[in-house]
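Retro notes (design track)

What went well: tokenization of the new backbones is finally stable.
What didn't: we kept losing track of which sequence belonged to which structure.
Fix going forward: every design gets posted as structure first, then sequence, in one message. First example under the new rule, 169 residues:
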């Protein structure tokens, strides 16, 4: 946890220094996560809810990102993604915005969210794919079904995209 906080402090400090050096820079920051742990007890349920551990992880995401002021929170239209995104949206007094991962216009999305700080909650396959779309290159592969703790951070400044992945527990 201390490593994560230190990394976030360094990232935000570098962004702040860069913004001071060139005030015409416009930075957009995207935080992308897979939904938290889902109930796997009914293999036929295509829209399972979060488990208790999943709800705890969603609440912990708010704690981990408590110093970040979000402008928008996006989620796919499934219980598990909405319930992962909802605590952070509420903490930032934001309405949850839904998106269809099968129909994303990355250029249009980036224009709409330019200069903002955005959380995007998706799935084991859509979160890395969305990150790649924002980066404009294939950097990340689908997640294993057992991985719920990746936090992708994509930063776009003056059209130049960079990224990192952090592990949060």
């Amino acid at each position: 946890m201390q490593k994560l906080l230190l990394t976030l402090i360094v990232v935000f400090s570098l962004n702040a220094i860069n913004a001071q050096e060139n005030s015409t820079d416009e930075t957009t920051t995207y935080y992308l996560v897979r939904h938290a742990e889902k109930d796997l007890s009914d293999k036929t349920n295509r829209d399972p809810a979060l488990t208790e551990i999943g709800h705890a992880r969603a609440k912990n995401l708010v704690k981990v990102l408590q110093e970040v002021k979000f402008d928008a929170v996006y989620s796919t239209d499934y219980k598990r993604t909405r319930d992962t995104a909802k605590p952070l949206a509420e903490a930032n007094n934001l309405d949850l915005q839904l998106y269809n991962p099968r129909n994303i216009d990355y250029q249009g999305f980036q224009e709409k969210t330019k200069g903002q700080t955005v959380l995007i909650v998706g799935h084991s396959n859509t979160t890395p794919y969305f990150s790649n779309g924002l980066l404009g290159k294939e950097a990340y592969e689908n997640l294993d079904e057992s991985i719920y703790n990746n936090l992708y951070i994509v930063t776009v400044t003056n059209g130049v995209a960079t990224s990192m992945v952090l592990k949060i527990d």
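Added context from the reviewer: The mean pLDDT is 91.
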